[in-house]
Amino acid sequence: MFIGVYNLANFVTLLGLASAIVACFSATSGHLLLAVCMFLLSGLCDMFDGRIARGAGSRTRKEKLFGIQIDTVCDMVSFGIAPVVIAYACGFNHWYDMAVYIVYASCAAIRLAYFNTQAIEETPDLNMKAFTGVPVPFSCMVLPPLMIAKALIDSAMAVNIIFAAVYLAVGIAFILNVKIKKLNIPQSVALIAFELFCVVTMFIAYKK
To answer: How far apart are CA 208 and CA 205, in angstroms?
Structure first.
């Protein structure tokens, strides 16, 4: 009745997309802390959807290709657009901020398209062992510390400069020709612990 491939892994991917959309809505409604939390939930979904897919048993090539494509489309919204919306909602909306956001989002799009091209052209089993360029979900490591800085630094201009500089640097990192290995389970656990620490610190900082 419907086109597409429906399995647990793809539903987790779509949950990440839904979380990113809620993050955008929350940010534009002034609920910035909720926006960051929903953004991180999107990152958590992205961390596990691939593992779920690979652990689900044999998949046809068509199912694998669809999983790659839907993951990329959702990642563009989750990690290419949502961080931009959150930063804009924070009040960093000058012309130079918007120029940085355009560069950031464009680099994210290039990175994701290149990943798909590599997966299809260079890996017979469509299972990438390493990334070329910093993966776009890396923005989950960046945004919470930036939000903490926003709460702790008194100078709005200083924070604005920090946001713009970091977003520009991360965008450029997306398209660097460097090889980065996929995270193993201990590294993934450490990353989740770091994000939880940042969330707790962020809420404490904004209550002061």
So the answer is: 6
Nearest to 46 by CA among 70, 21, 81: 70
First and final C-alpha spacing in the chain: 54
Query: What would the pLDDT profile of 56-97 be if each residue is shown by its tens digit?
Result: 777 888 888 999 999 999 999 999 999 999 999 999 999 999
Find residue 181's DSSP bridge partners: 130
Under 8 Å CB-to-CB from 108, ≥6 apart: which residues?
75, 76, 79, 80, 136, 171, 174
**Unique residue bearing structure tokens 């199912």:** 63
Q: What is the mean pLDDT of the chain?
A: 92
Distance CA 47, CA 60 (A): 22
Q: Do residues 197 and 141 make contact, with C-beta atoms less than 8 angstroms apart?
A: no
3-class secondary structure for 85-110? HHHHHCCCCCHHHHHHHHHHHHHHHH
Closest Cα to residue 50, out of 69, 66, 71, 65? 71
CA distance linking residue 119 with residue 35, whole number of Å? 32
Give the pTM: 0.93
